[in-house]
Structure formats: C-alpha cells, structure tokens
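Issue: ligand-bound run for magnesium ion - logging full I/O for the record.

Environment: standard queue, default settings, no custom constraints.

Inputs:
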Amino acid sequence: MSVTAIVGAQWGDEGKGRIVDYLAQDADMVIRFQGGDNAGHTVINSYGKFALHIIPSGIFNPDTLCLVGAGTVVNFSTMKEELEGVRASGLAGDNLRIDKRAHLIMPYHCQLDGAEEQKKSSKWAIGTTKRGIGPVYSDKAARVGIRAADILEPDRLRTRLEMLLPQKNRQLAYYGLPEADIEALMDLCASWREEFGGQIIDSLPLLRDAVLSGKKVILEGQLGVMRDLDWGIYPYVTSSNPTAGGACSGAGISPRRIDRIVGIVKAYSTSVGGGPFPVELFDAEGEKLREVGQEFGATTGRPRRCGWFDAVAAGYSCWLNGFTEIAVTKIDVLDTFRTIKICRAYTINGETIDYVPETSQQDIAEPVYEQWEGWQCDTTKARSWDDLPRQTKAYLERIEELTGAPVNIVSVGPEREQLLIKE
Ligand code: GDP
Ligand code: IMO
Ligand code: MG
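Outputs:
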C-alpha cells in the first residue's frame, strides 16, 4: 500500500474533501496536516452531505483512523459541533484523534482575526474566514501558543496562560476588545479536556508504524498553493503551507516516504477572499460558472470569484508540489459551454511570461487565453475515460500538457461515485 498526499493546486475549494472521502474507502489512516476550521471540505456520500472544517474527510470509514495532525490549529468548540453533525448521521465518529502538538484556537484568536481585518482598507483586506487562523499561527511562530497537550496538564496550562495573557490583553485593548479572563479560559479548556482529552495523542508512532507496515495512509491538505504562506499571493494568504512540503512537516513524515502526490484542480478557477486573481471574469460567463458550479463558500457562504482554468497557476503548483498525478474535478460544470478557455500565459507590461510572478505583478497580469471546443453534452454519468466525449478528453490532455502531470482522476459530479479513474 502507499502514502498519498492530497494537495489543493489552485486557490482552495478544488474538491479535496470529496477525493479524500473516495480514497479513504479503503484507507487505514487519514491525517489533516495543516490549517484549521477555515477549511470547508464538502463530502456527499450515503451518510448525507457534510461540510467538514477540521475533521479529516476519512471520518466516514470507521476503519480509517483520522488524525488531526501536529501542523494543524484546532478549535475544540467548533470541532465538537462538527462531530455532533457527523454523529447525527449514525456514525460513532470514534476514529478521530488529535495530535498533542496541534495548537489551540482560543476565543481571543477569533476576536483578533475579525478586528485586524476590520482595521484594513478594502485593498488590503485578506477576507479571512475569521476562524482565528492568522493570530493562532502567529502565536505558534512567536512560541507563546497553547497546544493540545497543555490542556491535559492544568497547572502547565495556567502558567502558560499567565505568561501570555498580559500581552494578549494589550493586543485586545488596542482593538477596543474586552480582556481575556484566565478563569474563563481555564474553564473552557477543562470542558475541552472532558470532551476530547482521551483523543489527544502523539500521532507520530501511529503514523510511523502504519507506514512501516505498509498501510494505506492519506495526507489531507487544506486550501491551495496560491494561498500558501510562502508561495501564495502574500499577504492575501493563509498562515500555513498547504503544499506537499507542508504535508511532511505537518504530518511528521519524510518526503522520501510519500509515494503519490495528487494535485486537486478544478476544471476552471475560483478564489474566495482578497488578492489578485488574473483570470477573474466579471461577465456572463463568470456568472454562469458560479451558478452552474454552485460556487459559494462551504465555510462562509460567500460567492466565489470565478474564471477559466489558469494553467500558469497550475503549472507553478505542479513545480512546487511535484505532483505525480492530477485529479480534475467539476468537469461537468463545463458541460453546457459552447467554448472553453485556458489561460496559458500572462502578459505584464507587454512582456509574456509562463510563470506566476510575485503578488504586485499579478495585479497587473493580463491572461493570454487559448480557446477550446466545448462538448455540450452530459458527462455526469461517465465512469471511465472512454465514456468521456472527444472534446473533454482533448481538454484534459491539454491540461496534462500545460502542467506536466498526468490526469488520473476526473470527477463528474459531487457524489462519491461520480468519479472515474484513468487506468
Ligand atoms: P474542498 O475545500 O477542496 O474540499 O472543496 P469544497 O468542498 O469547498 O468545494 C468543492 C465543491 O464542489 C463542493 O460543493 C462539492 O460538493 C462540489 N464538487 C466536488 N466535485 C464536484 C464535481 O465533480 N462536480 C460538481 N458539479 N460538483 C463537485
Ligand atoms: P478549503 O480547505 C478557500 C482564504 C480566505 C482568505 C485567505 C486567508 O476549503 O480549500 P484564513 O481564514 O485562512 O486566514 O484566510 O484564505 N481561505 C480559503 N479559501 N478555501 C479554503 O479552504 C480557505 N481557507 C482560507 O478566503 O482569503
Ligand atoms: Mg472548501
């Protein structure tokens, strides 16, 4: 068996959750390796429809151990709500574990996230999910964060909070927010300990033993490369690394142990939040992509910005991640388009480039498109490569050519079985 990393290759919402749900049907372990409940991973299967935020998308297979890895940030209050949603479908959900090293999202992180965003002008607003992601990862980097392990040891937790709160309260006061109260936080953490204490573990020996004994392991990413802290459209990024490299540090595995790195790409482009998006369409075609693709955020409900497939961004993503293959999702959304475009280069001040430049240059990048013939028929029932129309195959082959990675999975609808694997 093997270790497979599932990585978002665009601006997030590529369909990572549904691919992980599919592959987890025979997986022994799924690990979410970074991010927090800013994710919205939609899964539709025989249990119902779910928007998973922090719980790994393998949760629907009771035989899959689902680990929330060391590189993640966890809000136990929202995790509890999410788990209740999963349990309401009849699942026990007792295959969930949280690594001791995961950092905890506290109420003050969410307050600061909202307040920091509000203070920015519209040009500089990131459009965060307000889940406290920037502030909690800032504390982690500043080495003042509270980790899951800390709530298991109340004395240690109190000492850490006593060290941190004077500084945190000055930050809160700067934004006119009420001070954080240590007793209220200790009580909150006690309730989290009660609820999740038994599931907070050291995931590394489990992952190591699974890998060494040849089990099937999936590393589940959150968001996509274009919002990576280092390589995304900084500062309009998240505060972690959603790349295959991030999978290694976040899950605790060497790059040499990863057999497959699957880049998830949507058949067109979407982005939610601020920052440049060179292929954004403001016309009827963009509106049609949003309506047909139901492009509204799974976490915030915000309408997603839409555009044609950006092969420049996808190629960049391929380089950064080393995809062994690509999964193309939502191909069915293009079923009714007469013509379809692919952005194969950008022009900036008259110069044509085939790579993603630094953020300020992306603001002025003009997409260079090539046009493809649409297939104008229903693909939602295709279950093999041969079932796809000639034009769809040509479109997918062009994506392979431009990105340099083979397309091995194609999804043709949101449900678990609406997917085909290219043999
Ligand atoms: P993730 O965050 O990468 O897991 O993706 P999201 O769940 O945020 O967004 C993907 C959206 O597209 C969800 O609403 C899915 O149900 C839907 N979806 C996924 N694959 C397909 C597909 O092949 N066709 C269609 N029509 N919808 C899909
Ligand atoms: P999944 O896993 C799409 C965007 C936000 C914002 C920026 C930073 O479902 O693909 P953050 O809350 O992380 O500080 O926000 O990143 N963003 C997402 N966009 N899908 C997501 O997750 C996202 N998570 C964050 O809109 O621009
Ligand atoms: Mg999503």
